[in-house]
């Protein structure tokens, strides 16, 4: 006798592609806390280097209704405005609602990207100046990864100082490699001018591990050590412009210091001497 079984044909459930979905093209894990990834760029997306967009994944289904909602966070675009793909630099937080999942993406996966770029870390928010300072902690390096590859940065300023403070030396690698790669970037050297990268003064520091320079950038500026190392005078509203992107305590402390040097905070609608944005933390 033939046994009758109730066979249900297994059908692959096709998850509908979201209208704002983009495809992951590459992922690089820098440390157990940091990774970067690149995704396709919507053809219609225009942005200014330094801006951010909302990106994310679908959240878990609601325990009762089963409904799923997008889980989105603000991420600075780390790639420049001319790049055909979009790059992001992210922290991995093991119990973070988004990054606990996002850290597992692989090439070919989709993420949600709302194509509405905004932000204050843009050239338009600053008055003309001689020296541009980028102050970052941790993943706050991301908007500067964009601006360091933006020709306007070098057209508008004689000198670019980038400071990056992280807990450990390994957390500096993404930024250090990016800056190093500018030297060999044939396209940028051709477009901006051969040796454009000589305008950059890079000042990486660590706070919880030995490295070439130990200490918080704020303390190193207060003591004058940072200016001596960089061979530049302390900031002045006559010559210096600044962009800040880090954790909240850092942003507030540095903002107060810049005000102390006489710099005034600017915005898109009112360009001044410096601008601030909070780095994404989840
Ligand atoms: P520290 O190790 O002394 O706290 P986080 O990973 O917590 O966002 O920190 C990134 C880096 O920013 C760390 O090196 C941290 O130093 C530094 N940092 C945190 N708060 C401040 C602040 N108020 N001023 C300067 N650096 C700070």
Automatic annotation (TrEMBL):
GO terms for molecular function: ferredoxin-NADP+ reductase activity; nucleotide binding. GO terms for biological process: cellular response to oxidative stress; heme catabolic process. Its EC number is 1.18.1.2. Its cofactor is FAD. Belongs to the ferredoxin--NADP reductase type 1 family. PANTHER family: FLAVODOXIN_FERREDOXIN--NADP REDUCTASE, OXIDOREDUCTASE FAD/NAD(P)-BINDING DOMAIN PROTEIN. This is ferredoxin--NADP(+) reductase. It comes from Marinovum algicola. The lineage of its organism: Bacteria, Pseudomonadati, Pseudomonadota, Alphaproteobacteria, Rhodobacterales.
